[in-house]
Design a protein that fits this description.
It is built from six helices and six strands. The protein is an alpha/beta fold and 176 residues long. Helix 1 links the parallel strand 1 and strand 2. Bound molecules: magnesium ion and zinc ion.
Length: 176
């Protein structure tokens, strides 16, 4: 299966910080349209998201579940299905193996699903969303241009997209 691994905050939805209430979830303008283009072309979706608010006690696990339920519902309204959401609840000090830029979340998804890595993509608004794919050489697309001066550009970053519609267009072109 060809898949797109999506970051959550500021990629799919607006992020006022530590979202702990489903009412706060609001999709970015380009999210539904961009993902629809990709799902029509046969891509399946996963979300890989750092949620350190859980580790910091600002988001309860059950609040995060409710937020994710709402996010999935909002996307389903546009006939977009997410296979699974993988999240890291840790803070840096936990030194876990799943907090992006570490690859634990992606590794877990790749172990649970039959994914064609060569035909799959990572999309996120930060370089740390792309880095998890560097080791397995999965291509990455940055949306909304959020490169920080201190960022080291990973070798798998292949495109800087304006938004998710732009990212989808790039993927469809490289797929044809
Ligand atoms: Mg983000
Ligand atoms: Zn973690």
């Amino acid at each position: 299966m060809k898949a797109v691994f999506l970051d959550r905050d500021e990629t799919l939805n607006h992020d006022p910080g530590y979202i702990n209430d489903p009412e706060i979830i609001k999709l970015k303008d380009s999210a539904a349209e961009g993902l629809k283009l990709l799902s029509d072309a046969g891509y399946i979706f996963f979300i890989l998201t750092n949620q350190s608010g859980v580790g910091r006690g600002k988001i309860l696990p059950e609040q995060l579940d409710a937020v994710h339920k709402r996010l999935l519902e909002e996307l389903e309204k546009h006939s977009i299905h997410i296979e699974k959401i993988y999240y890291c609840p840790h803070v840096d000090e936990d030194h876990c193996t799943c907090r992006k830029p570490k690859s634990g979340l992606l590794d877990q998804a790749l172990s649970e699903y039959e994914i064609d890595i060569e035909k799959s993509f990572l999309i996120g608004d930060r370089i740390r969303d792309i880095i998890p794919g560097e080791k397995v050489r999965m291509k990455g697309i940055l949306v909304f241009n959020k490169i920080a001066p201190s960022d080291k550009i990973p070798s798998n970053l292949i495109f800087m997209a304006e938004n998710l519609i732009d990212a989808a267009g790039f993927i469809l072109k490289s797929d044809s």
